[in-house]
Amino acid sequence: MLAWRGAKGSFPRVSFSDLYEEFNKSKRTRPADELARVQESLGDVYDRFRIRMMEIRESLKIIRQLLDRGMPAGPHIVDDPHVALPSKEACYNEMEAMIYHFKLIMDGIRVPEGEIYSMVEGANGELGFYTLSDGTGKPYRNHCRPPCFPIFSTFSQLIKGGSLSDAIVSLGGLNIVAGALER
Which residues contact 20 (CB under 8 A, 6 or more apart)? Predict the structure, then answer.
C-alpha cells in the first residue's frame, strides 16, 4: 500500500532490485481516477480490496514485460560447489559431486564473522532475514521476519467499531500466513 501512496520508504523504491525503476517508468500506468478515489477514502475493506486488485494488475504488467524481454541465456545458479548444491544428476553419477553435496549440507556455507539483515520483497511485503555469524558454517543466530507480523499488528485497529462480518473479511484481506504467526 505504501508504494501506491508514493511513500519514500516503500520497499520497491529502496530495495536492491536492479530493474524496478526501468519497469516503473514508461509501460506501467496506474488508473489515476481509481487511485485518487482510494487515496481519498476511509481505507475500509472494499478500498483495501481495490488496492490489492490494482497491485495484482501492476504485477501482471511487470511479469508480461519480463516475459517479452525473454530470459537471459546461461545458467540460473552459480557454478561453485562450495556454495551451491550440485545437480541431482551429478550427485547420482559423480563421486566428487556427492562429496560436495555432503560437505555443503553437513558443514554449511562459511560466511564471514558478523551480522547482517537482508530482505526481499515477498507477496505480502518485506520478508527479512537476520543472521549473526561466528565465522563457521552454521550461523550463531538466524531469524526470519515474515511480512505477517507488521500486517497482523494492524488487525485490532482495522476491526475497532466494526461488525463481526467486517472482522472476518478484514482478516481475509490481510492475506496473512497463520503458520508464520504461530512462533
Answer: 12, 13
